[in-house]
């Protein structure tokens, strides 16, 4: 499967969170939503965040982004 979203985001450094304001998504029910995720790791080469509220209450989901070299 895949997921695609676009929109804007804000970062709360004190709380270590990122909030996405979703304009459009391959999940249409996400359009117009704000979703907050915890920042687990942020370095020059990696960004890891966790969504603690995945659909259906089935736990959490993490995303890992690595800088291309």
Task: Explain how this protein is built.
- With about 70 residues, the protein is mostly beta strands.
- Helix content is about 0%, strand content about 55%.
- It contains no helices and five strands.
- Strands 1-2-3-4-5 form a five-stranded antiparallel beta sheet, with no helix packed on it.
- The model has no long low-confidence stretch (mean pLDDT about 90).
SSE topology sketch:
Elements: E1 5-12, E2 17-25, E3 34-42, E4 46-51, E5 61-66
Antiparallel strand pairs: 1-2, 2-3, 3-4, 4-5
List descriptors:
69 residues; mainly beta; five-stranded antiparallel sheet
What is the share of helical residues? under 10%
Q: Radius of gyration over alpha carbons?
A: 13 Å
Low-confidence stretches: none
- Classify the secondary structure makeup into a structural class: mainly beta
Distance between the termini: 26 Å
- Spatial strand sequence of the major β-sheet: 1-2-3-4-5
Q: What proportion strand?
A: over 45%
Supply the number of helical segments. Answer: 0
């Amino acid at each position: 499967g895949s997921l695609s979203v676009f929109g804007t985001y804000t970062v709360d450094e004190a709380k270590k969170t990122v909030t996405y304001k979703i304009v459009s998504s391959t999940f249409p029910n996400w359009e117009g939503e704000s979703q907050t995720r915890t920042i687990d790791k942020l370095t020059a080469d990696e960004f890891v965040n966790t969504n603690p509220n995945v659909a259906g209450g089935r736990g959490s989901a993490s995303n890992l982004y690595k800088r291309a070299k």
